[in-house]
Amino acid sequence: MTGRDELTSRDPSFNNHPAFAGVRAADPVVTRVFAIDAARLLADDKCEDVVLLDVQGLSQICDYIVVATGTSDRQMRGSADDVKKLAETTDNGVFRHSVDERTTWYVLDCVHVVVHIFEPNARAHYDLELLWGDAPRVEWQRPGEKNRDLAGLHGG
Fold first, then answer.
1. What is the DSSP string of 41-72?
2. What is the model's pTM?
3. What kind of architecture, by CATH, is found in domain 27-131?
4. What is the mean pLDDT of residues 60-64?
5. Separation of alpha carbons 16 and 39, rounded Å
6. Tens-place pLDDT, residues 33-48
7. Mean pLDDT, all residues of the chain
8. Burial 57-66 (b: 16+ CB within 10 A, else e)
9. Residue 18 dihedral angles phi and psi, to the nearest 5°
């Protein structure tokens, strides 16, 4: 149980806090399914090297982190919009979203799942996979789906 879930289980008024309207104690199954669906959506949108990290117990901020690389600012923007739509249609919603000045990094905070879409150089610079190196990777690919990591560089 994360610190946020402990808070919501002790204090039901947390769900009614004006700054966190709509935030609820997470159903772990629903959260995991949303994280996997977001990773699959990014791969379907042709983002590269999609990684899903399970940071439960490691982060007090969220339960899952999705990291992907976009090939252009247009593609990254479109993929971010698609994740927003997915979040809204699955009752997860986007609490906050942000893009840096040069459009090299989109962040979507869906409370329990945080999605990062980077351009390749920004992803290498911030290296979230190394930062969260203790987090287990979650298998998100559909059964029978071909792995795009043909060189075998990412071990996922």
1. HHHHTT-EEEEEEE-BTTBSS-SEEEEEE-SS
2. 0.77
3. 2-Layer Sandwich (3.30)
4. 93
5. 30
6. 999 999 999 999 999 9
7. 82
8. ebbeebbbbb
9. -60, -30
**What's the confidence (pLDDT) of residue 92?**
84
How many CA atoms, within 13 angstroms, populate the side-chain half-sphere of residue 46? 8
- Rounded Cα distance, 61 and 5, in Å: 11
Residues 6+ apart with CB under 8 A from 44: none
Exposure string over 137-152, b if 16+ CB within 10 A, otherwise e: ebebbeeeeeeeeeee
Q: Is the pLDDT of residue 152 over 80?
A: no
Q: Where are the domains of the chain?
A: 27-131
Give the per-residue pLDDT at 143: 84
Eight-state DSSP code of residue 17: -
Q: Which amino acid is at 19?
A: A
